[in-house]
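User: I'm putting together a teaching handout on how multi-component assemblies are represented. Below are the sequence lines for each component of a complex, exactly as they appear in our records. Could you produce the 3D structure of the whole assembly as structure tokens, so the students can see both representations side by side? Please keep the chain order the same as the input.
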Amino acid sequence: MSRTINLTLKVWRQNKANPGGFETYEARSISKDMSFLEMLDVVNEELIVAGKEPIAFDHDCREGICGMCGSVVNGRAHGHMEKTTLCQLHMRHFSDGDTVSIEPWRARAFPVIKDLVVDRSTLDEIIRAGGYVSVNTGGAPDANAMPIPTEMAEKAFNAAACIGCGACVAACPNASAMLFVGAKISHLSILPQGRPEAAKRAWAMVTKMDKLGFGNCSNETECEAECPKGISILEIARMNREFFKAAFF
Amino acid sequence: MNWFIETISSSIGKKLLMAITGASFILFLMIHLIGNLTLYFGKAVFLSYVAHLHALGPLIVAVEIMLLILACIHVTTGTFLFFQNLYARPRRYAVKRWAGGRTIGSATMPYSGFIILAFIVLHLSNFHFVDLSERTIFDVISTHFSSMLYVFIYTCAVVVVAFHVSHGFWSLFQSLGANNNKYMPLLRVLGLIFAVSVAIGFGFIPSYVRFMI
Amino acid sequence: MTLDAKIPAGDLAGKWDRYRFDCKLVNPANKKKFTIIVVGTGLAGASAAASLGELGYNVKSFCIQDSPRRAHSIAAQGGINAAKNYANDGDSIFRLFYDTIKGGDFRSREANVYRLAQISNNIIDHCVAQGIPFARDYGGGLAYRSFGGAQVSRTFYAKGQTGQQLLLGAYGALMRQVAKGSVTLYPRREMLDLVLVDGKARGIVVRNLVTGELESHAGHAVILATGGYGNTYFLSTNAMGSNVTATWRAYKKGAFFANPCFTQIHPTCIPVHGEHQSKLTLMSESLRNDGRVWVPKQPGDKRNPADIPESERDYYLERKYPSFGNLVPRDVASRNAKEECDRGKGVGQTGLAVYLDLADAIKSRGKAEIESKYGNLFEMYEKITGENPYEAPMKIYPAVHYTMGGLWVDYNLMTTIPGLFAAGEANFSDHGANRLGASALMQGLCDGYFVIPYTIGGYLASSSLGEASANGPEFSDAMAAISDNIKHLLAINGKQSAISFHRRLGKILWDHCGIARRDDDMKKGLCLIQNLRAEFGNDVRVPGDEADFNQALENAGRVADFLEFAELLVTDALSRRESCGCHLNVDFQTPEHEALRDDENFSHVAAWEYSGRDKEPVLHKEPLVFENVALTRRSYK
Ligand SMILES: Cc1cc2nc3c(=O)[nH]c(=O)nc-3n(C[C@H](O)[C@H](O)[C@H](O)COP(=O)(O)OP(=O)(O)OC[C@H]3O[C@@H](n4cnc5c(N)ncnc54)[C@H](O)[C@@H]3O)c2cc1C
Ligand code: FES
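Assistant: Of course. Below is the structure of the complete assembly, with chains in the same order as your input.
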């Protein structure tokens, strides 16, 4: 079995001067052990040496935790492997001769900055509306003063595992951010530390999300299927409950 | 802004409206289905059911008005959602594959919704706003279903309804937040059973009337 | 210049209390008149910016990534230490202090480390109050584990994502201040210079990475929390964007750089797969609790591991260190892996790997138990390598992981430039020559939440600082210099990419100043670095525009700084005529190949001063005084 493959890439290129379109590149002798981003590195190095602008893409940790990377590869957010970020997608999952289409996250709330790089600051704005516990540094009680059942801690952790990559928005047929917002609201509303502000938080974050141009959730569950951390849509159900409590009580 | 208006105009508020109105239609659909099943037992049984129903008098009118209002809300909110969602993604993907979350039912909600709306208009003009002074409703039904075109349209429409509720059923629980990992599988299954019942229960009526009676 | 660490007088345990009492305070009403620039939003930067915002200062927070939440701290896996003694196993503030000093091979400052140990407990309390979902035991109390060979269980964790959860907590606190208006965020900005006015740090120049514009930001003090420089070695476990640029440019403006040669090499990383590898992934150290490390006895044995009989395997750590076995400290494990591979016993395609085998543990305790303990690590390993660790032993190899060196700071965490502070991995302060597991998160949060908010107040209250304004000539000069620099890089128009230079630099450093260092090698390495830098200046190619989103340009700038900094790193390594912690010079070792310290002559911090382009840097020494611990030699036999 050969350890390298050749691919044809159809990559979305866009910049200030160019409103956007696909360009075709050949990725040659790609080792199957490379990650998808390393494959792009190879293509980019060729472009640089040829004096052309490399393909712009966001990335940092390359371990699937910072949430910086992400593109729609062959129609799937972060590519076709389950629970995998683009930086953790390895080329052994592609075959020699494949054509691979690569597009940026597409949503009104995520305008393209360049090529595959989008502006996700709207996600920060949602957190800013209330995605925290209002506690100042200093003066916290002893860490063990309030016992928290293991199951509760785990449930909160599962929601808190969100890496904020925006794949849920990208994958959602409606470009909705409900899984992202649901995850944060759930994480904090499950824990006793987050309860005092739960209603206020749910209201503030949801209404903020609405103002930022995300779509509405119609329970398509594509977000859950594409989430690299496997966050469940039940977090959205919990967010809905918290929101109703805030609105009606 | 008034808190109530603010709530229902939010994204989750709109979900709430869709869920509550949807739930009412599901309830209505169940009753309607149970009633219509009498057709399978022949003309006499069916007409006696109709008579009982009409005996309810003003209650029926009240329910009809309620349904009309709910329909207006469901349709307007749905239309809003449809266009807002289109607006949220100004440029579509050139290549898009679904990851396995979507179903035919969920993917077609707005379209099946509009088809159902058109069908309801047709359905009401066929069977509701008709002159029954000289014939029974059963006669109206059998006249219409003597036409293959009607049989076809009605059967298709029922299938569309079934797909719509296949997603709508569990989805409304999710929207209401009445869902957790214990009940999720149950809700999914119940939704499926309900959709299939609708498809079978309503779906065979036209053919039954056309061919068997 | 004599280095004054400004350590408060008096007994060790009371120093921090007394310091806080003696520290001048800023009148609450005046706080909002002070602008503080915080560069970096990792654990150190985000926590500092948030706490300063809470106090009422006007804070400007900068980071390279598109959101503060993505700083490299997010990747930390294992946990965070605190001297809570919840396990009732004999832990105490003094023990954490002692372990940290000893672990650092007696090359850190007592007073700082003691303060760190004291504050460790407040950190956990605060993080729990923030809603961080730490692991819990069945009674609802915090779960803890022993980590990195510690003899007490003092490490708190949130699955394998402790850094993520802690950073999201700090990020939340930061966003809360943004909402309140006390902090302004400047994401996608890269700090390219520090601006001094009258000898004090008064601002920075950044490049807006989206538009390419240069921006000046003025303030009354500047905090650098820009992380470590592990990426000088190209391949490391650090995030791709981690860099030395901010600290290096501060160094060039007069901040001393301390102990640059202290770089930690982590023994359990997934080995390099090939030429185009971009970074290395850490496999948690905890695997060594149950795994056995081995290589084939016969050099060049390329058989399948399963085909190598027990008698032909060399469990070299167990053989050499019977009492610690596979649990020897990071530096010892790393060094031995390299030695075995140098003898031709390395495994895998490249021959640069050793086996970490959990087969015995699976056999004796069952797959289920091992899976529950390490399941997610095994999954990660399989994802990256395509091999199933339940069936074949994992392959591991050491990789650069953490840098103990950094900007020299005093007890206030202030550098040698008044008004310039350094926090987190960017400073050199607490870990000496070697960092213990789970203590970087602790230090970052300690600096940011609990130390800098006090010490910066003391500085501001006792200095006379005028209005913060970016209109002075100092700012325009700095902008002009950077702009020239950028234009120059774009104009070289050579034939090689910046990343290819970076790759070569990494190889030079790894080979000549890596795990085990030799004088000859290092001297040769120094020449190679100089040549490479010259070649870079003539032949690098940076396409694209200055006034645009241009990642090639960003990268070229960072590589240029790595190339300069690497020389200082090797110079420092050469000048430290001893072995200590992670710095092993083969000329200084015990007969058992252990690091041989020279406490007489090298019990000091080496702080380097920039003396101009192409001039030798000047070495300053801060003597380390140990009044509370006895200097001992480590032994793991
Ligand atoms: C894989 C891995 C696992 C680890 N696990 C553990 C663990 O279990 N326990 C533990 O205690 N430690 C661990 N560490 C170490 C620990 O994570 C780091 O030392 C620590 O997080 C550093 O935090 P920091 O705030 O100093 O810097 P960082 O988190 O590195 O943040 C640097 C910040 O500075 C910004 N920045 C950098 N340069 C510039 C510039 N020029 N201009 C503007 N902004 C800039 C960046 O954008 C970023 O926001 C681990 C490290 C790695 C690599
Ligand atoms: S680069 Fe960090 S998640 Fe992919």
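A couple of points students might notice: The first helix of chain A runs from residue 36 to 49. Chain A has two domains: 4-103, 120-135+146-246.
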